Give the backbone structure.
Amino acid sequence: MIDPFGLREDIETKLKAFLESPVHLKIGHAITNDVLWLQRDFSIFMQACNDTQIMWEVYTGGHQISLSDLIQHFFPESSNLKDKRLTVSDWRLRPGMGMTWEQEQYAVADVHFTLRIFDQLRYLVRLRFALQASLYSSIICYRVLSHCLSLLFAFFTDSS
């Protein structure tokens, strides 16, 4: 487990090339704020990223869903592995600096299930839309980036 706040000085120098690479696929769930944070604080503009929340929206025609609900949908036998109480636990605690074993297991399960859900959704979206892989990836990446741009626009045009 890596604490990105512990690597703050190294993010731009060591992770920028990977995150901006169109060759390496980056997968997450509800990553819009993460993408914005990387853009704002490090001038990192992610490429080849897929957001399972947006993939679900594309698949269902616009319905947002939590990661816990996606786990329940695709892997009902495993949904009890994620303690929902941990969703609201103190995530300011960092690995090696107070983060509990339960929080670490919760985070590991997030990664494990996000990758499995990505595989399931990629298959389902391709079946539904009969799209080629590159076009499909472009649609998802476009949705992530356009959502980020709309949030940035709202931030800079907010008069309050």
